From TrEMBL:
UniProt-listed PANTHER family: DEHYDRODOLICHYL DIPHOSPHATE SYNTHASE COMPLEX SUBUNIT DHDDS, DEHYDRODOLICHYL DIPHOSPHATE SYNTHASE FAMILY MEMBER
Cofactor(s) required for function per UniProt: Mg(2+)
Quaternary organization: Homodimer.
Biological role stated in the UniProt entry: Catalyzes the condensation of isopentenyl diphosphate (IPP) with allylic pyrophosphates generating different type of terpenoids.
GO function terms (MF aspect): transferase activity
Record carries keyword Magnesium: yes
Protein name: Isoprenyl transferase
Lineage: Bacteria, Bacillati, Actinomycetota, Actinomycetes, Propionibacteriales
Protein family (similarity comment): Belongs to the UPP synthase family. Z-FPP synthase subfamily.
Gene3D superfamilies documented for this protein: Decaprenyl diphosphate synthase-like
Amino acid sequence: MRRAFYPAYEARMLRTMPTGGLPKHIGVMLDGNRRWAKAVGADTAHGHRAGAANIEPLLGWSEEVGIEVVTLWLLSTDNLNRPAAELEPLLVIIEEAVLSLADQRRWRLHPVGALDLLPQRTAERLKEAEEATRDVDGMLVNIAVGYGGRQEIADAVRSILHEAAEAGTSLDELARTMSVELINDHLYTKGQPDPDLVIRTSGEQRLGGFLLWQSARSEFYFCEALWPDFRRVDFLRALRAYAQRERRFGA
């Protein structure tokens, strides 16, 4: 019954969705792969593969409603401390997923994160995917791997200090010119709009450092579904909830 019902329900939601009130940039925390694997009696790698398989459908749904930027959090800086037996297969799965997206040439991929903290092979694969899709005229997809919000801000400040030193700018001069806009220009997402909506799956209701700076005025949507089970109807519900809110932008 559900399989027969959901397509009609989704179509109705799309027809009634206020197109003028949809987000331009969404951030998605793809959470719950390990719990999903445990629930189905499989190993962790199986859960990560199931999660990776759900990325392409999400991007298709986003493209369908006119979203311009999607940021996917695939691996945090904290995750880099996981045991090698879990981390290494996960990195391979991420590499394969990202290269598969690049091969389609539907979306422009942009890695965001501390690539210098990643194994060289993984960093190279991410850069290859970015280069291969540089001229693609499609939705921008930020691939957050080795990403942490605090790390991003620290990297931005470090970059500003390096530029000031190279230009011979004194610390007093830099302090006078330091601004929100200057920091924005040194983030991993420089030049991009901040996310309008951040979605986290798995029922957890915390950011964990995701887009810490950029999400200051974002709306948040927490979904109970574990990431591999996240469906188009869940995505549309998140968009509907967003469209129904009155955004105050901190006021």
